[in-house]
Amino acid sequence: MTQKPARPLSRRLFLRSASLIGCSAAAWPLLSPVTFASAPGDARLVVIILRGAMDGLDVVRPIGDPDYATYRHASLTNGKTDPALNDFYALHPAMADLMPLWKAGELGFAHAVATPYRDKRSHFDGQDILEAGTGLDVPQPQVRDGWLNRMLQAMPDLQSDTAYAVGRDEMKVIEGSAPSMSWAPKTQLRLSDQSQRLLERIYEDDPLFHAASQEAIEISARLEAEKEAQATGMARPAIKGQAAQLAGFAASRLREDTQIATFSIGGWDTHRNQRNVLAGRLGDLSGAILALKSGLGRDWGKTTVLAMTEFGRTARENGTGGTDHGTGGALIMAGGAIRGGQVYGHWPDLADHALFEQRDLMPTADVRAYAAWAMRGMFGFEKGLLESTVFPSLDMGDDPKIIS
């Protein structure tokens, strides 16, 4: 029987309850949430939100454009060889560990993409528009659900555990009336048998928190079992790095009933010292993608990973070795279900006259269209539903055939 959706727990309610159940509330501001949902079928979808505006021009470098070297002198004089993707594009060297995926057709990119957001270049507004999936260039306060949740609402026989959220970064992309589950790493429920019985007694008449607390207890017990398995050598070695840990936990759930996972990786706002800061972030992202591949095992073959950011960055570097908020950027795609080994999209040129407002990479495609085509290829949604309900006012255009 399909469960009714449950409202997410408020932070106030969680913190009040944490003192009772022994949760590490001191770690609260440092947590990054992972959100999951179960859906019919075998396809797996992972959406990674890269908060802070990743510089797509530095990640997927258009070295074949004659203006690129002029704009990005500091980025290119790093003494390392950029892995070639083709005659026109090269990959940032910090992502060199992903080149085997590129060669295997399990890594791809779409360049010169953006949401409809323009001009103001605010992180808050840009992330809101990205996760809400709206077709307007200003946030819509009345739109309270995200495009992943609207996709879930359209799935028949949807099943999910009770929803609850922990952590500073709320994943609007999956919020809404369709049920989903939220969990944050390093949040542990240390309950004695007596404490557990007390908790159940206190909230037995509160269906919202009773269901959520039972789910939290169950997940905590499962994590403890996995930790014990790690200690006895009966499980895969633990993965270092927070992003990789998020991905590793996501993979463990995706091997079971969960088929949709989303989490965020922050720190992409590179106004200064971009060479070093971006290299660290890309290393974390690469580790997360490799952790998904390793953890998913044979399920990797039916998995699509979309790593999306709110907007790109300026074509030219600034005076502090960084870049400022821009417009066009890049989408990163991975997984055994994608047609990788390609950089999708129409390149707009970096000449001054071709730049958006003579400062940013001109977007030539809506990043939502790639997400929509991925959903159509994976789950078989009708194009009309995707263009009107999941992504309002979207014109998907021609099928880029990103799903194999």
Automatic annotation (TrEMBL):
Keywords annotated in UniProt: Signal
Listed InterPro entries: DUF1501 (IPR010869), TAT_signal (IPR006311)
Signal peptide (residue range): 1-37
Protein name: Twin-arginine translocation pathway signal
Species of origin: Thioclava indica
